[in-house]
Automatic annotation (TrEMBL):
Keywords: Membrane, Transmembrane, Transmembrane helix. It comes from Saccharibacillus sacchari DSM 19268. It comes from the Bacteria. This is DUF2500 domain-containing protein. The chain crosses the membrane at residues 40-66. InterPro entries: DUF2500.
Amino acid sequence: MGWPDGEFRQDVNGNIVYETTSHEPGIMERISGFFDGAPLWFVIPFILIMGLITLTFVFGIGSVIIKSAKEKRSNEAAGILTVPARVFGKREEMRGGGESRVRTVYHLAFELENGERKEFQVEGEHYGVTAEGDSGMLTFMGTKFEKFERA
């Protein structure tokens, strides 16, 4: 076991004492192992690019969360409506692929009694039992499909 970093000196009484020179490391000393020997022209852009990637990721996730919360609040404020409607369109959308699992998203388009048209994302079970031209009662809350009961 060796001596910690420090130096010998003489105190006010004339005694020789060993005084350590340890101090709290700064940020550059903490990360210096990662960038040992790297030139400054590499270190600064590296830190800036990594910071930009991190900020993009954080703001991207944040915006999705905020958008989802706003849509949920808007749907809840709209209340549940049940109105006469006719199915005038169906469509399927494939999502994913490549490295991820392929998922099918189903949509039904309705024409309301007043002529307004609305499209909702629905579960496969609702999509499968509904045909274009079906008439019935549509129940929804804002942009969220609840159910469709054929007449």
